[in-house]
Input
Amino acid sequence: MATKHYILLVPGFFGFANLGELLYFGHVRDYFVAEMKARGVDVEVVQVLTHPTGSIRTRAGDLLKSIEAHVKDDDCPIHLIGHSTGGLDARLFVSPGVLLGDDMDVERFARRVRTVVTVSTPHAGTPLASFFLGLFGQKLLQLLSLFTVYVLRFGRLPLSVAFRFGSLITRWDEQLGFRPTLLDQLFEQLLGDFSAERREELVRFLGDVGNDASLVPQLTPEGIDLFNASCQDRPGVRYGSVITQARPPSLRTRLGAGLDPYAQITHTVYAFLYGRTQRMPLTAIPPPTPAQTAALVEAYGALPGPQACDGIVPTRSQVYGRVLAAVRADHLDAIGHFDQPAHRPPHVDWLISGSGFRRLHFERLWRTVVDFILLQT
Output
């Protein structure tokens, strides 16, 4: 009898796994199901529901609950794939001796995990987290989360909202403390386009983001240093990472975004986030192994410096275990949120980075991940 594989997809910083028809990992899930079927592999793919900005320990507990709810076979292997912060949740979950709660039997399932794949994960932290620590940053995080959901549902933000937000972030120092109602106005305008039922779901989701931001300080380079000191790799588990590096904002990338005013404004958002992510101190980045260095040099032509990033996470911070793929992509491209509306179902992008990442790159990347998962099975 063929072995059944369970693949758990763990979402990251923007948190939502499933809001009705809005699927964080929709394209990844569909690819896995089709690719495994083509290879004759029995698989069940589960999208994990997590507290969006809860602590890594809380989110690892959410992962356990998803496994308990969906993994019914006692001997089938488990594979964890985490995007962004989800990669840290997966690492903590399999760490030997981890305590997630008095009534949580982690070891029962952790010993069955065969692979942990992290995608664009801040293993050494990200300077962007420090920006989100402030009151303005927390509000902005909520708004960016809502933007992501809105664009996936409607294809793009209303131009009026995009203009106001672009103006806000380009002058955010002036706005801080002077116009506290502007963000609330943007929230209300966007929420008004959803049905009453969906608005309730979104308000709960955004409430989670605002009420529990325990994750944010843990993702600073200083916070993640303590996590790495206490989180150990599990013997027998194979660790692999997918690395993303986007182009720095420039006149070239702005011209590449085209003449569409919406694309230009969203590129401004990308430039804003990139500028706060590239401030990574070199001392916070562990030196890569020779094999990791070779993989990065082959992919990018040179070892990325400390300023290289995907707009959210420094590129060198993402390296962990075997480098499975290193691609030119922004933080959301690798999980299917790039600009290719002609594909069915469409790929929708809201972080216009000019990376050039498309469906061909997406399939090549995830085929490598499937190869890694099935390597020793």
Observations:
- Residues 16-21, 173-180 have pLDDT under 50 and may be disordered.
- The radius of gyration is 20 Å.
- Residues 5-128+216-374 form a domain with the Rossmann fold fold (CATH 3.40.50.1820).
